[in-house]
From TrEMBL:
Region annotation (Disordered) ranges: 1-35, 744-764
Subcellular location, principal: endoplasmic reticulum
Descriptive protein name: Vitamin K-dependent gamma-carboxylase
Pfam families referenced in this protein's UniProt entry, alphabetically: HTTM, VKGC_lumenal_dom
Matching Gene3D superfamilies: Jelly Rolls
Organism field: Parambassis ranga
Topology in membrane: Multi-pass membrane protein
GO molecular function: gamma-glutamyl carboxylase activity; vitamin binding
Length: 764
């Protein structure tokens, strides 16, 4: 991929380029007039006319400045990422030595090392990222980073996502590139490589990779769910979109801004960054987009990494012109700003340039101009890599076993945010293979992840793991059955896997369709418009859940006592509702409904030939009563504070007069008052955080990162000490870990903890 006029030594671009041309050609030679194609794309049609010309083009000498700055920024964000999304700060929680934990590696033979050795792996990865940033022992640092990074990546599929995959790809690319030719420790140590040209394919590969990230993500959004505004409809309610809500209703903000804007940006960003005329516009929108993503999603350093990739589309000498504007006393620590560059054997130089240099007594250029095997291999690798990256997102016909309502082997398809899911009901049933005893497991037992619910490969691994652990609890030859209900992109809640299949014995292959995967009922997608109408007709205290089920199956459900006035309304098909305690059966046709008792089990059988569709309508009476009490307490508190309340407050309500702090909560004897005060304090904190100024936000960000890194480094130091001299006494180890666990005051106050005591929506 080639950015417009983005090749130093070949394109006309201001003063820096003119100086490059003067160095590259004899003084008597006049500058050549560039064709329109060369001005727009940076190369001539003749450069693609033969294999030799293509190899020469891809190995054309290019300014190393932009690549060097990107290398530095990428290494920095990866060093920070190691402590955050890679998990160094909470490694002891993730890899518990000796604990019965089910894990989900790509290959089952991959297992984590003992905890202290895992800290060593992470330390190698961190030092590799630091070496990349500094350009110090560059190749070794890249190898240290990517070897440990891909090991961690393959070790846990539950942490897979597209941007984690992207980090590994960029690290792999940098390993093969000459990223240490500019502003690097290696350049300071070895003057022969300092400020030396890099071949054009170094930029071509990175630019193409970023183009693919944007463009394929846009192609994947040309999906009826995304175009219809169903994939990320909840985002429109975020406060970041409040400015748009001033002129548009929430529904149009979701459709036009969230989905339409996201689709347009992904499809066009790569092209807009490509051309000189549109690049400033692209910089603005891309930067705005990634800054919003950093606030909308918990995606670690991805927005900052993508911001760091945008300058790659500029002229490669942009850092020289940028840093040349800084005061002269800073030049000693800033990158080189002089336009002179050294020649490199990694590049192929024009014959005129090499002949001129030979006459000046420097034969190195003549050797560099020869077409060598490494130049051909670099061109072959570049072409094959680009083809492979365009192919992989559409290779799901190969990895069919991973195609569970998503696009194949998730995490490398660039289908970012295309699917949103909600889970209404998860049940794990075990059966003793010898006694026939049936029991139920808490969903998520023996695992730290919730992602297994959506992927058949993980479900198979989870069932196999449970099969190994349950015999410890006197359950012999266990059979494991999963009943998982999922709604994807605001559809009906429906089963994703067949609940009648023992997953322990079930067949699964990465290259064959999953036989126990239930089909997505896409024929029922048009019902989503009706869902919106039904939800809009209900009051704020009434909730609705839409269910679709297959013939021959049934839903066993328990209605919590918190839920009052719960009824089942049939929308399509025919169902039979059995109230277990009453031992009664009721057959319902479309348009009919039945009240189901709270605090009791019932079963809904689908008896029609096709899928049945029905909905639960209920009121969370406990929550409604709580909110009503909160409203009364708030009104009373306001009257007390503005002096309009003349009656003395009873003792249980007197804490309402105290300031909104933790002390008032502790003094409250009435649990409703205590919850109210806690809720008020949290709302005040949220408002304060949202209205915080830039400096306060930066301070909060820096403090949070400091304590994250502090724990990472202290725990790593403890692990390295353990490996070197052995474990200390338990009391000493406890004190050391407690010191590493010290947090900032706000974190100790658990500001982000939800109001667990408040009654939420009961699970249907």
């Amino acid at each position: 991929m080639e950015a417009t006029d983005a090749i130093a030594d070949a394109l006309v671009s201001g003063d820096g380029q003119e100086q490059t041309e003067q160095r590259a050609s004899p003084k008597t030679e006049k500058p050549q007039t560039k064709t329109k194609m060369e001005q727009i794309f940076g190369f001539k049609k003749e450069d693609l006319s033969s294999w030799k010309n293509l190899v020469t083009l891809l190995n054309r000498p290019t300014d190393p400045a932009s690549l060097g700055i990107f290398r530095c920024m990428f290494g920095l964000v990866m060093a920070i990422d190691v402590t955050q999304e890679r998990g160094l700060s909470h490694l002891d929680y993730k890899y518990l030595d000796g604990a019965p934990v089910c894990r989900f590696p790509l290959f089952n033979f991959l297992q984590p090392l003992p905890l202290d050795w895992m800290y060593l792996v992470y330390m190698v990865m961190f030092l590799g990222a630091l070496g990349i940033m500094l350009g110090c022992f560059y190749r070794l640092s890249c190898l240290m980073f990517i070897s440990t990074y891909w090991y961690i990546f393959f070790l846990d599929k539950t942490a897979w996502n597209n941007h984690s995959y992207l980090y590994g790809l960029i690290g792999f690319q940098l390993t093969l590139m000459d990223g240490n030719r500019y502003w690097s420790v290696d350049g300071w140590r070895r003057p022969s490589i300092r400020n030396a040209h890099v071949p054009l394919w170094n930029y071509t590969l990175l630019r193409t990779q970023i183009f693919i990230v944007y463009f394929i993500a846009g192609i994947k959004k040309l999906d009826s769910d995304w175009v219809g505004g169903y994939s990320m409809s909840y985002l429109a309610h975020h406060w970041l979109f409040d400015p748009f809500k001033v002129i548009l209703p929430v529904e149009l903000v979701s459709l036009l801004v969230v989905h339409g804007g996201g689709l347009f940006l992904d499809l066009t960003a790569g092209y807009l960054l490509f051309f000189d005329a549109t690049r400033p516009v692209a910089f603005f929108f891309v930067s705005y987009f990634h800054c919003m993503n950093s606030q909308l999603f918990s995606i670690g350093m991805f927005p900052y990494t993508m911001l760091a990739t945008s300058p790659l589309f500029c002229y490669p000498d942009w850092p020289r012109r940028f840093f040349a504007r800084f005061p002269s006393f800073l030049q000693a620590v800033l990158p080189v700003t002089t336009p002179e560059t050294q020649q490199s054997t990694s590049c192929i130089y024009p014959e005129a340039q090499s002949t001129s240099t030979e006459q000046q007594g420097t034969p190195a250029a003549a050797t560099a101009s020869k077409l060598r095997l490494k130049h051909k291999l670099a061109a072959i690798f570049t072409i094959l890599y680009i083809v492979e990256q365009f192919f992989l997102p559409y290779s799901h016909f190969i990895t069919q076993g991973y195609n569970n309502w998503t696009n194949g082997l998730y995490g490398y398809s660039w289908d970012m945010m295309v699917h949103s899911r909600s889970h209404q009901h998860v049940k794990i049933t075990y059966k003793d293979g010898r006694t026939g005893e049936i029991g139920y497991l808490n969903p998520g037992v023996f695992t730290q992840s919730r992602r297994w619910k959506d992927h058949g490969d993980m479900l198979k691994q989870y069932a196999t793991c449970l099969n190994q652990f349950l015999p410890r609890y006197n359950i012999s030859d266990p059979e494991i059955y999963f009943d998982i209900w999922v709604s994807i992109n605001d559809r009906f809640q429906q089963r994703i896997f067949d609940p009648r299949v023992d997953v322990v014995k079930a067949e699964w292959s990465p290259f064959q369709p999953n036989p126990w995967l239930m089909p997505l009922l896409v024929d029922l997608s048009p019902w989503r418009t009706k869902f919106q109408e039904i939800e809009g007709s209900l009051d704020n205290q009434t909730e609705v859940v839409f269910i679709a089920d297959f013939p021959g199956l049934h839903l066993e459900n328990f209605v919590s006592e918190d839920l009052g006035n719960t009824s089942i309304h049939v929308l399509q098909g025919q169902v039979n509702v059995e109230v277990v305690e009453e031992k009664k059966n009721h057959t319902l046709q479309p348009g009919e409904q039945i009240q189901v008792p709270a605090g009791a089990y019932h079963k809904v059988y689908t008896v029609s030939e096709g899928p049945s569709c029905y909905m639960y309508i209920y009121v969370n009476t406990t929550e409604a009563a709580l909110l009503e009490n909160f409203t009364k307490l708030f009104e009373l508190q306001e009257r007390v504070r503005n002096g309009t309340e003349t009656e003395p407050l009873p003792p249980e309500l007197q804490p309402l007069m105290a300031p909104d702090d933790e002390g008032s909560e502790a003094n409250a004897t009435d649990p409703i008052v205590q919850l109210f005060l806690k809720r008020q304090r949290r709302l005040k904190e949220v408002k304060k955080r949202r209205e915080a100024g830039v400096l306060e936000r930066l301070e909060r960000f820096a403090v949070k990162k400091y304590y994250t890194m502090r724990r990472s480094f202290l725990m790593t130091a403890i692990a390295m000490r353990n490996l070197a001299v052995g474990l200390p006494p338990l009391e000493q180890l406890t004190r050391e870990v407690a010191f590493a666990n010290m947090k900032e005051p706000q974190a100790e106050a658990n500001q982000d903890e939800r109001l667990k005591d408040e009654v939420g929506h009961g699970e249907l």
